[in-house]
Amino acid sequence: MTNRRRFLTQSVAASTGVFYIAKTSWAQKSPGDTLNVGVIGFGGRGGSHISGYNKLKKEGVRVAALCDVDQNILNKGVANFDKNGQKVGSYTDLRRMLDDKSIDAVSIATPNHWHALASIWAMQAGKDVYVEKPVSHCVWEGRQMVNAARKYNKIVQTGTQSRSSVEGIGGAVKWVQEGNLGKILLSRGLCYKRRDSIGKTDSVAKVPESVNYDLWCGPAPLEPPHRNGKKGPIHYDWHWFWAYGCGDLGNQGIHQMDIARWFLGEMELSPRLWSVGGRLGYVDDAETPNTQIVYHAYEKAPLIFEVRGLPENKESKNMDKFKGAGVGVIVECEGGYVVVPNYSSAAAYDKEGKLIQEWKGSEDHFANFIEACRSRRKEDLNADILEGHLSSALCHTANISYRLGKKMKQGEIVDQIKGDYDAEASFARMAEHLGKNEVDLAKDQLTLGPSLKMDGKAERFIDNDTANDMLKDQYRAPFVVPEIG
Ligand SMILES: NC(=O)c1ccc[n+]([C@@H]2O[C@H](COP(=O)([O-])OP(=O)(O)OC[C@H]3O[C@@H](n4cnc5c(N)ncnc54)[C@H](O)[C@@H]3O)[C@@H](O)[C@H]2O)c1
Q: pTM for the whole thing?
C-alpha cells in the first residue's frame, strides 16, 4: 500500500508538473501514530475546529500548527496552547505550513475566496483536508477540488456538519426516499436569519497593521476594504461582498441547501434556475441580497430556497417561521411533509399536520473526518467534497442569475415566474414579509434574474456566454487555482 501510494504521488508529480507533491501523508504512517492537524484561519469558525480536534486527543489527534494572516489572532491562538504547555507551529502564510511534512491534514476556515486554492495546494502537498462551507467561491473551482481529491487520493470533508446527523436527518432522508410519504413534490430550504445593516462608510477603511492584507485577499482583487462594521474593516462582513463571500445563501443557507438537495438525491446541478431578491430595509456598504428566493427546476421536484434577513415585521426582533422552521428544510410530499428545524433532527407529518415519526441524533463531524483519514476511504466521509461542491454550486448558480438580473415591478415578476410549481406562492409570501417591514416595492424594486438553462454534466450554462463567464473567478497571480484534469 505504502509503495503503491508513493508510486502514485510521484507519478502524479511527474505527469502534471505541479509545484510540489509531498511524499509523506497519514496513509504512510502506522495506525497508532499521532495525526497532526494544522488549522488555517481561526478568527471565527476556525476556533471550533481547534476545540473540535482538541476533543479528539485520546484518538491520537493533535493540533500541531496554526495559521492566520492576522498576527493578533495568531498570537492569541498560539498563547492558548502555550498556557497548556503545548507547542504549536505558527504561520502567517499557509504555504509555509504546507511545507511542513509533519502535518498530515489541514482544516480550513478562511473566507470563501481562499477555500479552493488552500485545499488544492494542501492536497498537492500530501495533506488531507477539512474545508468549510461553501467549499468554493465559484462553480469551476469546486469541480477542481473534487478532481484533486480523486487524483491525489486525498480525504476531503465538507464543513456541512448536519451531514453527520446520520440517524437524525439521514434517517428522515432514507425514509422519504423509500417512498413512505409518496412522491416528493417540493424540497424547500429556509434561511430566515436576522442580518442587520453593516453601516455605511464614506471612504475606504484603513487595514489594521496586524493583518497581512495581500495574503488575506489572496486570489481576490487587492482592493482596499469598503466597510467598517462591528468586526472592523476585514473580518466577518466580507460574507456580504461578491469578491469574497456568497451572501447568506452561501453562508448559513448552504447548510439548508445541502439538506434540501440530500432529500432529492440529486447529484447534478439543476437543469434550469432563477433567483429574485434585493438588499432591502436599510442602506449600507454591502452588496449581497438580504432577501432572496431561488428556484432550481429539478425534473423530479423543484428545490426552492428562501432567504430572509429582516425580522417578521418592522417592530419585532423575531424572525418568520414556515411550518415550524426558520433556518431549516421542509420537504413536501404527496402524503404529508417532513420538517428539519435544526442540524440534528427531523419530523414527518401527515397532510393534516399530525406527527407521524421523528428522527434525532448527530455524530461528531471532525471525528468522522479523522476516521476517514485513517481508513483512506472517501466512502466513510459523511460529507465528501463532491457533496460539498454540488450544494455550494447550487448557491453560486443562483447568485449568477441574481447578479444578471434587472429591477422590476412586482406585477412583472409575478408574470415572469408563473408556471413554476409554487414559485408564485413563495414570491407572494416574500412580498408580504417585505410589506410588514415597510419596504415599498414600488420604490425599492426587487431584482429578478434570468431563467438560466444548465448542462448539469458539463456544469456549463446553455447558450449564455455572460453567465458562463461567471462560473470561474479571475485569479490574482500567484494565487491562481490550478485546473486539475
Ligand atoms: N460550518 C459552520 O457552521 C460555519 C459557521 C461559521 C462560519 N463557517 C465558515 O467558516 C469560514 C470562516 O468564516 P468566519 O465567519 O469565521 O470568518 P472570519 O472573517 O471571522 O474569520 C476568518 C479568519 O481567516 C483568516 N484568514 C483569512 N485569509 C487567510 C489565509 N489566507 N490564511 C490564513 N488565515 C486567513 C482571517 O484573518 C480570520 O481570522 C467561512 O467560509 C464560513 O462560511 C462555517
A: 0.94
